[in-house]
């Protein structure tokens, strides 16, 4: 993959902005309010794009770099939206030795995105995980709550086609 980064354009609504501003104004005076505000912002928008981080920065008078640092440090925060279908490929040891890395690479090729990204149409997002507790079915991937086990690279395209 090249460095051509694809993303879903930010489409925040006036209602979302109003909800975020309400949370900020409610919590701004409390010690340690940044994390709860960021958590609420992610609940409102589903992720923390730069536009949302900038709103928080402007309202709290906190440098954007600090907000970005918090957002990238804690795994609970997502900088990219999640797709309607969230694909997670296990790269834990049992799955990896049975070929999950190749499955992950095949998904990146087919979807035209890298891990952590969402397809421009908002349909699929792709992430790696460490273990889903289904080592006996290795290699494993999940799409939302559905588990696919004993996969081969050749299975991937047909599985994605079910979600059209």
TrEMBL record:
Record-linked Pfam families: 2Fe-2S_thioredx
Q: Can the keyword Iron be found in this entry's annotation?
A: yes
The cofactor binding remark recorded in the entry reads: Binds 1 [2Fe-2S] cluster.
Question: Which positions bind [2Fe-2S] cluster?
Answer: 90, 95, 131, 135
Say which family it is in: Belongs to the complex I 24 kDa subunit family.
- Superkingdom of the source? Bacteria
Per its record, how is this protein called by name? NAD(P)-dependent iron-only hydrogenase diaphorase component iron-sulfur protein
Q: Which InterPro entries match?
A: NADP_DH_HndA-like, NuoE-like, NuoE_dom, NuoE_N, Thioredoxin-like_sf
Which residues are listed as membrane-spanning? none
* Source organism phylogeny: Bacteria, Bacillati, Bacillota, Clostridia, Lachnospirales
Q: Write down the PANTHER family for this protein, in alphabetical order.
A: NADH-QUINONE OXIDOREDUCTASE, E SUBUNIT, POTENTIAL NAD-REDUCING HYDROGENASE SUBUNIT
**CDD domains of this UniProt entry?**
TRX_Fd_NuoE (cd03064)
């Amino acid at each position: 993959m090249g460095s051509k980064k694809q993303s879903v354009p930010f489409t925040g609504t006036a209602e979302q902005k109003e909800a975020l501003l309400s949370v900020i104004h409610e919590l701004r005076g409390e010690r340690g309010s940044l994390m709860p505000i960021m958590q609420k912002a992610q609940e409102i928008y589903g992720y923390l794009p730069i536009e949302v981080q900038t709103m928080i920065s402007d309202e709290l008078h906190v440098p954007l770099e600090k907000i970005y640092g918090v957002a990238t440090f804690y795994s609970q925060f997502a900088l990219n939206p999640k797709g309607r279908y969230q694909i997670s490929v296990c790269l834990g040891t049992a799955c990896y030795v049975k070929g999950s890395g190749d499955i992950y690479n095949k998904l990146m090729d087919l979807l035209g995105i890298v891990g952590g990204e969402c397809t421009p149409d908002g349909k699929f997002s792709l992430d790696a995980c460490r273990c889903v507790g289904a080592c006996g079915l290795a290699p494993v991937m999940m799409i939302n709550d559905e588990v696919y086990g004993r996969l081969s690279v050749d299975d991937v395209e047909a599985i994605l086609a079910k979600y059209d």
